[in-house]
Amino acid sequence: MTDEEKLSAIRKYSFNKMKQDTTGHNFDHIQRVIRTAKQILKKEPADHLITLAAAYLHDVADDKLVSDPAKLEKEIYDFLKGLDMTDEQISEILYITHNLSFSKSLDNPPKLSLEGQIVQDSDRLDAIGAIGIVRAVYYGGNNSETIYDPAIKPREKMTKAEYRNLNDETIINHFYEKLLKLTAMMNTPTAKKIAQGRHQYMLDFLDEFKAEWDANK
Ligand code: ADP
Ligand code: NI
């Protein structure tokens, strides 16, 4: 089986797992992450198969999305084993998908390989800019968040546990607590460059939002 054939099977598997998602992680998100990862791969000496496989699979066993992530990780292991991937390749892919998330970076950030860093950058680039704004609104609406409440101040520092248990989150707070922090956290020069324009777009959006909110007060 060629790497192309393996990736095509992994793409199909990811599509079937993600197509019903309504939390902003559907297959469109995966396709954008894949396209960004391919763009970064042009500049970085990373393993394409590991990077793209982890990008396709990065949200399949997310503990926010499935009740038993360990069961799904075992399923992914068996699936990749069936594609003749080695144990070493599979553990690298599962390590990346397990350690990618923003909340995991809050306490003791796990060390990621270059392949992991590329997937993380690509995932994070999809959380900022115009698409990031819409995803935050979509996620917030789905989770009954208030749009904005000036009385609720952004929490600058949070532990992983606190971040996961927010119950008074507003959509605008999410920008200060996560989205505006991502640009400084990008790993690769390519991602840092793309992030800058998207970051500025979010700052402009927040200025306009607050100006409209406070208009005629
Ligand atoms: P991923 O792991 O793909 O980066 P997450 O599961 O953390 O994404 O979030 C999915 C999308 O929803 C992202 O765009 C993220 O910024 C947004 N999001 C996550 N948590 C919140 C929240 N509490 N309020 C608004 N948007 C959120
Ligand atoms: Ni993702």
From TrEMBL:
<feature type="domain" description="HD/PDEase">
    <location>
        <begin position="22"/>
        <end position="137"/>
    </location>
</feature>
<keyword id="KW-0378">Hydrolase</keyword>
<protein>
    <submittedName>
        <fullName>HD superfamily hydrolase</fullName>
    </submittedName>
</protein>
<dbReference type="InterPro" id="IPR003607">
    <property type="entry name" value="HD/PDEase_dom"/>
</dbReference>
<dbReference type="Pfam" id="PF01966">
    <property type="entry name" value="HD"/>
</dbReference>
<dbReference type="GO" id="GO:0016787">
    <property type="term" value="F:hydrolase activity"/>
</dbReference>
<dbReference type="InterPro" id="IPR006674">
    <property type="entry name" value="HD_domain"/>
</dbReference>
